Amino acid sequence: MFRNIFLLVVCISLKYQYNQGEMPITNTSSSPVKANIRIFTIEPKMIYKTNPFLFEGTDGKQTDGSGDDSTINTEETTTVGREELEETDEVSIRVKVSDIPQEFVKVTGKKLNISDTLGNNVTIVRYLGIPFGLPPVDNFRFQRPSLNILQKDFTANELPPPCPQLSPRGDMLGDENCLFLNIYVPEDASLKEETETVQERITRLPVLVWFHGESVEKLTVYQNFGILMSGSAADLEPDVFVQKKIVVVTPQYRLGSLGFLSTVNEDLNGNMGIFDQLLALEWVNRFISAFGGDSKQITIMGHGGSAMTLGLLATSELARGLFHRVILMAGSPLSPVSVDNSPKSTFAEIALQNACPSFPTLRFVRCMQHKSVSKLVDADFQLTSGKNLGNVKMPLPIVQRNADGRFLPPIVSLSPSTAFTTGNFEQVPLILGVSAAEMAGFLPSLAGKSAKEVPTSVLGSNAVLKQFIRSFVSRGPTDPEVVSQLVTFEYFAGLNVTQRVEQAVDLLEEMISDFLFNVPAIQLAKLWSRFAPVYFYVFDYVRSGTGQTDESSRQSFGPNQAIHGGDINFLLTGHKGSSADRQVSEPLQEFWVNFIHKGSPLHSGIDWPQFREDTRAHILFRDQVEVSRNFRIRQDFLWNNLLEGLSKRECPPRRKTNTNRNSVITFKDPEDFLKYTSALSPRGKKVISEVNSPDGFTALI
């Protein structure tokens, strides 16, 4: 009997360590690993210090990377000065991976000489393809990631494969074994002479952990609306930051169904991609000191989909203390597509698309684990293609609320609105903003050629348009019928969409931009600013020489407007353009760099005020960078205040259209009535008559 009890305790202990990601199983290669069989052994649990690295000093002695006597063994190099990249000498560091027994591995990267068009020469050191998570393959597909601890010397000179996605040619690209990160370090980042000590000590630099967003090119090449389904660490060019004495880390995370599918129970609890991001941050906090980074000065940055997931991560108890500043570009965790409000419906659609049984859920998981990666990626594409734009179902993060049945804590336990309203998030400084026309050109790109060829399923008639809007906004918390009536009136009142297709396309893109990007960003700024500093921006600059105003411009993603991805692209490459471009890019880059260094976006000539609910001050990046106020204030009121109020009061407005195209709208609350009618004049609309009826306050507009 005692023997059986002992074996039971051992089994439970092993299962717990495996679920927690603490089993000493490692992958020391950057190549794909098939994990059909796992052998578990009982070994002493490794004990980690805050800075578990050792370096080889210039005198050949091993020194503790956590103290004042550490240095990186580098060799002097000369800068070539050509306007291109050139790899030169290798650089190696010794990494302490275990205390009991003491074990070390050597990680080798390469120096890279960079010469820009202005003749500035910089040398950086890059370490590519370092594995931070065990391969999530075979039976570990759809599971939470486990930490990967290197067990032998590692050469970090090759970019890792991206996580599975479609290539621009439509082929499957990447590998499931994709939990890698790249590290970019200034050449002289880690050395500083200290006169009061005998040995050299490390000067820690601030760290930027930069998670890629979706590929804008792939969104349009595929005619696809998928979020969190494309992109890789190779898409990111960190030179701008590394040249300013910042250590940059670019991790990868699982995408699509592999990263965000959920059965909403313990069989497949979801949010695997966010757990990947969390694991990457844990790895950085443990090991970044080896590369000259300061684990007490970590900024996380995301764009688009990754901005949404990082915002969710900020609400997680599991991520407390892992970062100290946040930059969210063109994405908000309060966006209707940041979390799936109907995950069971999405799960059923994905099961149908993959020809897997939806019940019992464990059988569904086993079926999905045996599907080829290419089939899973293709199924995701079919669900999010342009033909289904009005009723998109895609794997997204979910609110897990409770433990997943294995006594493992959830990573997203509160709805985003609840978390940010109550202050249950990491209250650190935030840069947040959007491009002025996020979705401009997006619908024509889905159609394939021009605005006139937007699918009739969207703009076949006014009635079809209303149905499309109703389907599109159904992801929000408010009754979609309420939303569709008010939104149709706000954006399309009096417009015959079949006769003025191009104008209707512009207005529809404006509506989608407000719904998915602008208003959720404003709402997050209002809530976050109650607890910590917020710096809001609007990017409304088009690179000189690239503007197009003719019909051909609508055949590709990006007419003459600041579109989705314009802000991040210009941040990285604007300094390479014309003098007009540099006039905008210089303060943009300086704001970001100073925020990462000091927690405040400083600039010698421009004061960026904190965002406050009463003033709504923000920086506007146009031909002249300036302070502005009240970005999309009426639309913010429509989407956030008015519709939320209607939802709470369960009093949907009643709208009728008479023969003169006038509208009758009734509100139960007089405050909502006054606010909405007063907001009509900027659009050339007016209240013809007002009636205080038993049903409420009615206006003929």
Automatic annotation (TrEMBL):
The organism's place on the tree of life at top rank: Eukaryota
Signal peptide: 1-21
Alphabetized UniProt keyword annotations: Glycoprotein, Signal
The protein's name: Carboxylesterase type B domain-containing protein
Domain Carboxylesterase type B stretches: 106-632
Family label: Belongs to the type-B carboxylesterase/lipase family.
